[in-house]
Amino acid sequence: METTKKKLEKLDIILNEKNAPIQRYFNHGLSRQEVVDFFNSRGILASDSLIALYEWHNGVDVTRFHVRQSLIQMFPMGIFCTLDFMMERRSQIIEDLDYLQLGDLHQYLPLFSGGEDNLFLYKISTGEIFYISPIIQILGELEFKSIDTMLDCLIEAYLDGTFTIDQEIGLNANYFEFENKKEKYRDLS
Question: Fewer CB near the last or first residue (10 Å), C or N of the chain?
Fold first, then answer.
């Protein structure tokens, strides 16, 4: 079985080969110890997959770049959150979004943002990733069973043409195919 790090290396190769604009906007990754210390200082026990994700890159600083969202998305509505942005949004979710159908909101970390209130939330205790979009009444739908299945899905989407890259526009996606692919990976795990 491939490790999270190997999957991230594979995704990195694909993004580089496609000359994906997002590569220009990623923050550098952090050391394993920096990631562990970041989460430990907040009382969060981080999984190896979550640590590996932030060793790879510390997200995209959405406040620093004023560019088209599709240039900085890894997948539709999926802008990779920095650790600091993750904690800011987490506090807002806990304070403001108690109507979500997810139970204890302290169990969730925003991994990806689509702007506004669209978020992909990582459940600390299970590793599952849920999608919320309160404006259209999506209050907690399971998107991926784990970071690893998310990466498998994204890698396949980049390789089979579900996702294409345009140098000026960024990510193009066949949304119907991506939904089918996500469903396939939810059913596999």
Answer: N
Q: Supply 107's token pair.
A: 């169990």
Condensed to tens digits (0 to 9), the pLDDT of residues 27-58 reads 999 999 999 999 999 999 999 999 999 999 99
The count of structural domains within the chain is 1
Can you give the CATH number for the domain in which 67 is found?
3.40.1580.10
Q: Residues 143-166: what's their mean pLDDT?
A: 97
Q: Tokens 């900085």 label which residue?
A: 72
**Is there a contact between 142 and 150 (Cβ–Cβ < 8 Å)?**
no
Q: pTM value?
A: 0.93
Both tokens of 89, joined, read: 């949004």
d(CA 123, CA 129): 6
Read off the amino acid at residue 57: H
Whole-number average pLDDT of the chain: 92
